[in-house]
## 1
Amino acid sequence: MSYPFQITSLEQYHKDYKRSVDEPEAFWASVAENFQWRKKWDKVLEWNFSEPKVEWFKGGKLNITENCIDRHLKTMGEKPAIIWEPNNPEERVRTVTYNRLHKRVCQVAQMLKNNGVKKGDRVCIYMGMVPELAYAVLGCARIGAIHSVIFGGFSAQSIADRLDDAKAEYIITCDGAYRGGKDIPLKSVIDDALIGNKTVKKVIVYTRTRTPVSMIKGRDVWWEDEMDIAEEQIEKNGVVSFPAEEMDAEDPLFILYTSGSTGKPKGVVHSSGGYMVWTTYTFVNVFQYKPGQIHFCTADVGWITGHSYIVYGPLSAGATSLMFEGIPTWPDAGRFWDIVDKHKVDILYTAPTAIRSLMGFGLEPLKGKDLSSLKILGTVGEPINEEAWHWYDENVGKKKCPIVDTWWQTETGGALITNLAGVTAAKPSWATLPMPGVQPILVDEKGNEITEKDENGLLKGNLCIKAPWPSILRTTYGDHERCRTNYFATYENLYFTGDGALKDENGNYRITGRVDDVLNVSGHRIGTAEVENAINMHAGVVESAVVGYPHDIKGQGIYAYVIYNGHHGDEELRRKDILQTVTRIIGPIARPDKIQFVNGLPKTRSGKIMRRILRKIAEGEVSNLGDTTTLLDPGVVEEIKNGKL
Ligand code: PRX
């Protein structure tokens, strides 16, 4: 496969960038022409950010799975689409060719049809990192069902809320999942999530761990049985195929829930056409992918990174995507390096938190591992500190591999600000330049563009984007107004990212982190309000306030200040009870790192918690708390300072 839209020089980057801004419709039409459309679009772009309404390739007809699979079959049918590395290195690797992927996805499509799934229905997917997860996602896309993948670390309660919000009628899950030394009982979590649920009709269960599961007659079916039935139905002369549903470019492809500054996660909705074009375009350009290379993105498909850069982007580009079931530190901290060595990985794309955690093990785990196949390294999910950047560069890339620092979000669908490997320059801890089609702007609190440089000669402000790129979110599921108020109402005619950023004299951006009440813990987004709601569910808790603080490995840790009036147990036990409550309500990923019991919280006279003060105390900046005179009871600050953990 060739990529006529691949940017191969700095000059071309500047030229393409300019054209994408001057003539966006012509530019994106020329990129979109390289995909398989059943019918070409009537209009490339229509938009306004006030509603918001964004339509790309309107009237165009396609199915993303024909682009990710069918179009490669003739020339690359026997090439590996997915290489699966299991949790346990002793277990057999599975190599899924494009032909095999086609067969499996067709079977899933027929299986879904047999179980009543139709175009537009919502299918919740709660699985471990097995190839069947990719088949499930693509099988939904093939029949036009909207998938909503939920990360395996979320609790039954979180799943129940998401099922309810999406009014999902179908679930695909596993009996269990392997994660390092643990078996996670996924089906059992689903069973808990379904207590009281009124919408779910069918649960399809793939066998991975053969953990005992309850199978409810009429509702629960085994994946293996259903796939066999489907295969028999659609096999003709040894060929298994299922016609892909024709989708409009603007038909929703998936929902992915993500945290915001309010208590309830939002269902970000992505479209079919624009998302396909953007994920492929960015995959090929950011990583400078060359046919035949092996791309290893270490994310989980439960997050947007896995959707865009394990499944859709690489497969649409006809790449080989390496899918890994385990964790970086099991059976030992050399796991990534073993995988790179064993599969001769060309591109490694991971999170700064993983790099920092592996740095902590020193160089021993790297000894004797041949990393010479690596050509390009990438990071995503959070700002990367310079120390981790240099460690990655020296010890993993051996100073020969460009590192791409890709800034983006669940809502953006794919990378927006990033260097292009070896084409545009890297700058440690800077995401650098916008992709063609992306027009960032830094604004102050009122929405005025920042024009004055700070003492370091940098512009500093809140990061917004002026115009839509093809994979911008289209809505938040079931509540368009929420989409407007969250992203398009803070500043008129701008998409607000929620991030702060710096810009240097060469136009490079450095993302400094969230400016709203959203935390980034190990590259995962968690709303402080969500964690507070969960803590407040504990019977002994009167009130709580949650803030982030710098954490050496996770980037940000969760610090909770809790007013407690229960009498049960000692302080340590109460802490454990609260952690258990958060695990139940959200999942282990939202467990606070520190819980400080306090008698009061710093509040203004109108009752608003002064988080700024709590954040400073959690960060250890107790000497400079700023103005505390507006507080209802300035005395509580002293007490909180003295009790800091
Ligand atoms: O704060 C930014 C941070 O992660 C947020 C988006 O989180 P999520 O939707 O979970 O998506 C993560 C994977 C795309 C952003 O608002 N972030 C993401 N990438 C970077 C980053 N911060 C700094 N540098 C990055 N490269």
## 2
Amino acid sequence: MSSFDRRTINRRDFLKLAAAGGTSGALALQGCAGMRDTAMAPGPRVVVVGGGFGGATAAKYIRMFDPGVQVTLIEANATHTTCPGSNWVLGGLRSLESITFDYGVLRKRHGVEVVTGRASAIDPDQRKVMLAGGGSVAYDRLIVSPGIDFDYAAIEGHGPGDVERAPHAWQAGPQTAILQRQLEEMPDGGVFVIVPPPNPFRCPPGPYERVSMVAHYFKQRKPRAKIVILDPKGGFSKQGLFIQGWQDLYGYGTDRSLIEYVPGPDGTVGRVDMATLTAYAGDFENAVRADVLNLIPAQRAGAIAVESGLADDSGWCPVDHRTWESTLVPGVHVIGDSAIQAPLPKSGYAANSEAKVCAAAVVDLLRGRAAGEPSWVNTCYSLVGPDYGISVAAVYDLTAEGKVASVEGAGGLTPADADRKKEALYARSWYVNVTDDSFG
Ligand code: FAD
């Protein structure tokens, strides 16, 4: 019997466990202080799959909204290294350790039961999540926030086996470390080629912040190196502000520019030769040999969401945005990058905001109440240099037709003449606040 099967134990066993300090028992009692007998029974059970920005926030906020609800978080890894901040690691501004969080605070302060292991399947009829290591966890409502997975079909010659030689570093941690090492080992005068993914993808400004951070690193350590962006798209998020920053800091637009930007279709890579690290773009006419190749493949919802029938033909998961309950599998809510959430972006801040709306709705539904009126917020900061920040912000609400819409006039890009040093400070303080809100 796995430790999670104790959810099926009888009431006497439950009380014994609680008296012995068993986590969920103690919490259920704490939530029912002053109440007797029937109120001593364990509360409704929510399981959360994935402990990144969406999942960790949802688990924490359900416990804050209603301590009578038992929450189990299933996360594949013992720690989570955040993608936000991982470009700053490549720029030499932070260490990987400083952007890595464990689940101690969620456990101890918020009473979330954390299971370190991979969820291998969901059984929506039996309301159970199966674990790859054996055993299962039962739920009354399930929240799934597994982030993204990759689709390797679009670029010939490149597959999942190539991510060590040509890392994506689009899931932070070991992949970031590989890319960092390759950049450090690259000779001065070498070429760094980055291939951003097609839309939709996690963190629309992310590839261009990466270019900026690598440019900063090269400017300090390898001034003769070059960056080539081979982009399948015709434009990108915060493009005007990035270009202005590249002009201000990296000679963009001059013959001394560190950065060359090739938009689609000329920049669209159709094939790579992994032996020589050559990318063939623009109808295979344009061959660019890389010393370091950062190929970020096309994306879709996390594997567990796709394999559990939560995704539609687009590869992403349709939801009712008031509750984030799947429109395909009842009782299962999908948040974060895996969900179809446009015009909300696939960002950590949006996932955090979606998680709070979902947590409130799940508590309401479990307690027999109608879910409330939601709204969301997102700000995407990027560092172009250590003291040079740019951002875009938006507020969203739900239309009468149940669609997410941005609220006109609430947000926008920072003006071209904004104080970039202050924006860089805001970017760093945003990171402290959002990670504390999600993992602290
Ligand atoms: P994640 O945070 O990726 O969490 C998913 C979790 O699920 C992971 O911990 C994973 O281990 C776990 N998991 C997956 N499958 C299973 C399973 N079967 N069983 C158990 N666990 C599982 N966003 C911002 O707001 N601001 C930024 O500045 C920013 N910068 C970024 C920079 C880069 C380079 C990148 C790549 C992204 C950036 N983002 C940023 C985007 C942000 O990282 C994502 O949008 C955010 O992480 C999405 O949250 P999530 O919960 O959907 O997924």
